[in-house]
Amino acid sequence: MPRYIGLISGTSMDGIDAALIEVAGESISLQAYLEVPYPADLREELDRTVTTGTASLPGLAALHVRIGREFSAAALSLLGDAGHSSEDVAAIGSHGQTIWHAPTGRFPCTLQIGDGASIAVHTGLPTVCDFRSADVALGGQGAPLVPLFHEALFGHAGKPTAVVNIGGIANITLLAGDGSGELVAFDTGPGNTLMDCWISQQRGLPFDEAGAWARGGRKHSGLLERLLAEPYFTRMAPKSTGRELFNLAWLRERLATEAWQAPEDVQRTLLELTAVTIAKDIQLHQSGGDAVFVCGGGARNVLLMERLAALLPGRRVRGTDEVGVPAAALEAMAFGWLAHQRMTGQAGNAPSVTGASRPSILGALYLP
């Protein structure tokens, strides 16, 4: 059966998720998974590039190639750990690292770096990358792209199901459960990104382990109200967002107008923002739902999972691990599956989700 490697570094920019999957008809199975942290200097350079929105042309070009080589190394490490060789794999699907995402305006655009030619040459494998551009060219948001994969995994549960991916940004996929109706999915807003930014600034930590620091704080209602006033939250889908909007500068602007007592209170309020925006959108767009499957790094935040369960009474909120799909691996698996779609000539986008004018085969193919 054909095997594919999926590679992604998400909005949190903490490293690379690599997944080896096997596709057999409608069956998709995970064969191996690996998380590879970025070197500290690379993470700092990426954060500086995205945060400031500026980069020299030589610097950006070199960063593009360096990310490609880091992705190549992750793919080869994955194969080595799994006891496979390149001959066992049909292709790599590499999402790359998002540097800029602006799918509206005069010149809609999205930019993910990570040189596909470098990945193909260093791994010896056909490599599909730049998945989002075709959808944007067709008038779409270019995101989220994982809902079709969510549907392939969870779309036949027999009852309405919600899939929540909480990376740096959170997105939801709402499935009818019987294959009927149009797919509904969009970015709800910040997932971990604001919490990560805040704890990094205040405590020098990359993230709040299990939500422990937030648990020691108190929700600040005035600040939460101010955060929820962001127009993005009431904008109609299709919609997508990223660190171009939800960043430390956005948070500081709102903190300046509110009195807050302690940094951990801000962290607790940011966690509530993520939980509330996800829960409200699920309740607004899906009635009669039962299962809520959570994947991404946010599934490891115990307090966040508790708050989602409390805000979605009557629904069973659980990580995808409980149904045999590692929460941390799911998005990397999705880009392996999208490589399968590209190599077999099948569409990878859902126009009802992204707003594109038609379904499209996604991704640019690089041969070794």
How would you describe the overall organization of this protein?
By secondary structure, the protein is of the alpha/beta class. It has 2 domains: 3-144 and 328-366, ATPase, nucleotide binding domain (Nucleotidyltransferase, domain 5); 147-323, 2-Layer Sandwich (Nucleotidyltransferase, domain 5). Helices cover 39% and strands 22% of the residues. The strands form 2 sheets. Strands 1, 2, 3, 4, 5, 6 and 12 form a 7-stranded mixed sheet that branches. The protein has a 5-stranded mixed sheet with strand order 9-8-7-10-11, sandwiched between helices. Helix 2 (57-82) packs parallel to helix 3, helix 6 (193-203) packs antiparallel against helix 10 (263-285) and helix 8 (221-228) packs across helix 10 (263-285). The mean pLDDT is 94.
Tell me the layout of helices and strands:
Blueprint: E1 3-9, E2 15-24, E3 27-37, H1 40-52, H2 57-82, E4 91-102, E5 109-113, H3 116-123, E6 127-129, H4 133-137, H5 147-154, E7 161-166, E8 169-175, E9 184-190, H6 193-203, H7 212-215, H8 221-228, H9 248-255, H10 263-285, E10 291-295, H11 302-311, E11 316-319, H12 330-343, H13 351-354, E12 364-366
Parallel strand pairs: 1-4, 4-6, 7-10, 10-11
Antiparallel strand pairs: 1-2, 2-3, 4-5, 6-12, 7-8, 8-9
Helix pairs in contact: 2-3, 6-10, 8-10, 10-11
